[in-house]
Amino acid sequence: MPIYIDYNTTLEEESLRSQNHNITKKHNPSSWVRPVKLEKKNEILNKLKTIESFDEGWDGYGALVPSLNVFENTKKFINSLDEYYIEKLNIEGFYASPYGTFFIEWIKGNKMVSVEIGHDLFGYYSQNLISEISEDGISFKEIPKELYNSLKEMYPVFVFEL
Length: 162
Hints:
This protein is 32% helix and 25% strand. By secondary structure, the chain is of the alpha+beta class. It folds into two domains: 1-34, no CATH class; 36-161, no CATH class.
């Protein structure tokens, strides 16, 4: 099971965590470990189910409902994404566009990583990266390295296996 160490933890958070776990003054790396929750993934999948029930013109201006293929591609993407980055996603950053695609956006300070998933198109961008992948039958067996690098830049993390 992977353990995630978040290097963005503040000194105040570390101090509170140390007090709560009665950690001695020695530097104890186990105090850095944060458990990963699956609640956010379920929240996103539930939001997907809600959007599936939308009618054409759901925004009042003729918005398209994403096709079944777009829903499937989005589920594949969510299921192939590391849980750590799912937990960092604000649910408001996951939404359907009026063009029948889904957007997934991570925002932290002045940094942003955005992913758009369509029927046969997958695009993503950040301040340092703009990329578009177009292929027949999008496969999300592996998230593109460039996309993960952009997420890691926003949310530095060290992962090791037990």
